[in-house]
């Protein structure tokens, strides 16, 4: 029987410095462009300037994950954990840190456009968001050539 991976100590922080923002972009490039094949023109856009960025960092200083949330309407996106660190319970605290941040700014909900491609080789993150308490909002739709599902988390 395989042993579950050990999770090193970590923190989730708002990325403030240019170096921290660059680390977020590096993880996104690795996951969305190199791994999932998105076009760089789609992945990196002006929206980043309107978002708060989060970085999950191990005590060693190595960064493992990132996410962003729009300052205006609580839209979560660009959620990514580096491949080697998935499945060890890092995605959940990353998103919980986003929830805490949005709540602290008076937000009532966080929503996302989850990839929902259940075909072989497709990316379906809806199960991840559902485990975290998100519910579907509306129907499936195509965005940037991929099936998506809007999902929302109501902040208590
Ligand atoms: C989606 C992603 C962020 C999850 O990160 P992770 O660190 O592996 O997630 P966690 O280990 O914290 O999992 C949290 C829970 O969600 C579940 N889960 C994780 N990924 C899942 C998936 N694809 N489908 C269903 N459930 C999933 C876990 O089993 C866990 O459940 P539990 O709390 O009951 O044990 C990660 O797989 C990733 O970066 N994927 C590539 C980028 C991506 O597709 N992002 C989403 C874009 S919409």
TrEMBL record:
<dbReference type="InterPro" id="IPR016181">
    <property type="entry name" value="Acyl_CoA_acyltransferase"/>
</dbReference>
<dbReference type="Pfam" id="PF13673">
    <property type="entry name" value="Acetyltransf_10"/>
</dbReference>
<protein>
    <submittedName>
        <fullName>Uncharacterized protein</fullName>
    </submittedName>
</protein>
<dbReference type="GO" id="GO:0016747">
    <property type="term" value="F:acyltransferase activity, transferring groups other than amino-acyl groups"/>
</dbReference>
<dbReference type="InterPro" id="IPR000182">
    <property type="entry name" value="GNAT_dom"/>
</dbReference>
<dbReference type="GO" id="GO:0006048">
    <property type="term" value="P:UDP-N-acetylglucosamine biosynthetic process"/>
</dbReference>
